[in-house]
Each structure stands twice: as C-alpha cells, then as structure tokens.
Amino acid sequence: MSAAAIASKPTTAQRPLAQRLNKSTIVMLVVTLLVFIAFSVSAPTFLTVHNLENVAVQVSPTVIIGVAMTFVITTGMIDLSVGSILALVAVTGATLLRTGMQSVLVILICLAVGALCGLVNGWFSSYQKMPSFIVTLATMSIVRGIALLITLGYSIAIPSNLIFAQVGQGDLLGVGYPAWISLAVVVLGLLGLTRTRFGQYTTGVGSNEESVRRAGVNTNFIKMGTLTLSGLAAGLAGIITAGRLGSGDANTATDLALSVVTAVVIGGTNLLGGKGSIFGTAVGAILTGVITNGLTLLGLSPFIVPIVTGSLLVIVIWINLRGGSLTDFLRRRIAS
After folding, report:
1. Please, are residues 136 and 79 in contact by the beta-carbon 8 Å criterion?
2. How many CB atoms are located within 10 Å of the residue 299 CB?
3. Which of 59, 73, 274, 290 is deepest in the core (most CB within 10 A)?
C-alpha cells in the first residue's frame, strides 16, 4: 500500500457524525451529562454562568495538552514530561519578563522552549528507538530540575498589566482567553487528525507502523512530530498558567501528565495506539474538571477530593472500557 493510497482512504471527517463518534466517546458524553445533572441538583452554585466560565478556564491547559497528547498516544507512544515542560516554560517566561523583555518576544521564546523539549523527546524516541515512556520519564525529572535550579524553589511574580499576563487573565465576551484558546486548539486538532496526511499517518503508525513505513512514509518523522507538538502545547499551556496565576513556579502542574492521559483515554483514544478522538479528549478533560469542581462546591475536604476524584475516574474508565459491550447489549435489546 503506497503513501498516496493511505492518504486517499476515506478520512474520519468524511464519515457520518454517528460513525465518527466512537462508542467510548458516546458513553462519556452520557456520563458527563449525568454528572452535570447530579452536581446541578446537589450544588446550587454549580450551574451558574460564573462557575461554568471558571471550569472552562481551569480545564483549558488539560484540553490544550490533551489534544496534542491524543496525537502522541494515537501513534502508540506517551509523553509524561508535559507537566515539567509547562513548569519550565512558566519559569522561563517569568524570568525573562523580569529582565524587561517585551511580552510578545517572551511568548515566542516560551513556545520555542516547549517545542524544543518535545523535539528532544521525539528524537530520542523515534530516531534512537528508545521507549517514549522511558525518555519522557527522564526528561520529566531533568526539565523540572532545571526549573527548580532557575528559581531555587521560589515563585517569580508577573505584573498583571503585561500582555503575557493578560493571555491568562483577559476575557472576550465574558469568557476567559484560555477557554477561547483551548477551543481553537480543539478545532485545529480535529482538522489536523481527520483532514491532513499528518493525521492519517499518525493513525497509521499506531495501527501498523511497518506497513506505513513500507508505503514510503517517514514514520520516525511522524512520531517525532507528534512529540514536538506535545511539547509546543505544553509551552502554550505554560504561558496560560503563568499568566493566570501571575507567577512562574517550578512546582506547578506536578500531576498534570496523569490528568491529561486520563482525559485522553476516557475520551476514547486507544492507549495502545491506532485510534484517536480529539472530541473525546475534550469531553474527557471537561468531565475531570467538572468532577473536581463539583466536589469542591459540595464542601469536601481538599484532602478527600483527590481520593473521590480518582475513584470516580476508575469507575468512568471501567464504563469506558465496557462501553462497547453496553451499547451492543442495548442495541440487541432494542432490536428484540
């Protein structure tokens, strides 16, 4: 099968909507709706415009990185270093701003730092044939260490009047910029995965890398590209996080990788590669954010919230994995 043949196959976007949404994504949509209803009844302040806007802003880093992570996981790899890259970018941005450098230039440098970290991950994982799990586990420690070395453990303040800070704190039509940026990233991710050759090759590499390679596709470049994309997304999320918090902190986002991978997997992307869902990832990120927000509004202790959240996520993933069986069972019952 040639590369042209792979590219000319019917794309995901050319299929009807019902076929594009895999069973796991549909199940997660239903679960998210039920969670919304449950918190709306139990927490009076949950279903307010202000709270929903807060949720949209809070989940934006997870959504942005989750879109890129969907490409990575679809190829059969994983990136555990996104939280550390986010922290390094936040620290780098705050440090450069303190020297008086212009915000626009700092933003470009921060994006370059994130992409460079991802490029290093991609080069070792694809061209040096090292497992991405090991590579990104190592860079997770190295990058976090560099961020701590720069700040010596202290936060670096960012003045709120700078453009850099406004990326995280500004709003349009009453909704924060981070939410709009994450929406734009989701749209770009949908188009990239379903309507471009890069997206088709990404899915092909995860399904059967050897066949795609024999078709003339540079699979190493595709794999390195997805990890570079992941680093770039972590850089963008780092700018948003630093701007929103008004500081660069090396201890930021220590458990972000787990949240992102969880959102991607419960959204319907196959952890073993070959199948990815950008829309499902967005749903997964929103679901995890809503659960955390709802439990906080219910007044649960901050020490109990992660326990309950983790338990609920296990149940949700179990439902996700059984989604196909449940929908098949319901379809048979309806037909009979």
Report:
1. yes
2. 7
3. 73
Report residue 155 as tokens: 């936060």
- Cβ neighbours of 131 (radius 10 Å): 12
Round to whole Å and give the CA distance between 126 and 205: 12
| pTM (predicted TM-score) | 0.87
Tokens at 295, concatenated:
């439990």
CA–CA gap between residue 310 and residue 85 (Å, rounded): 24
Q: Looking at 9-23, 32-46, 105-119, which range is the least confident one?
A: 9-23
Distance CA 310, CA 307 (A): 5
How far, in Å, CA of 264 to CA of 36, rounded?
Answer: 20
CA gap 282, 265 in Å, rounded = 11
Taking the CB of residue 51, how many other CB atoms lie within 10 A of it? 16
Question: For the segment 241-293, what is each residue's pLDDT rounded down to a tens digit?
Answer: 999 999 999 998 888 888 898 889 888 888 788 888 999 999 989 988 888 88
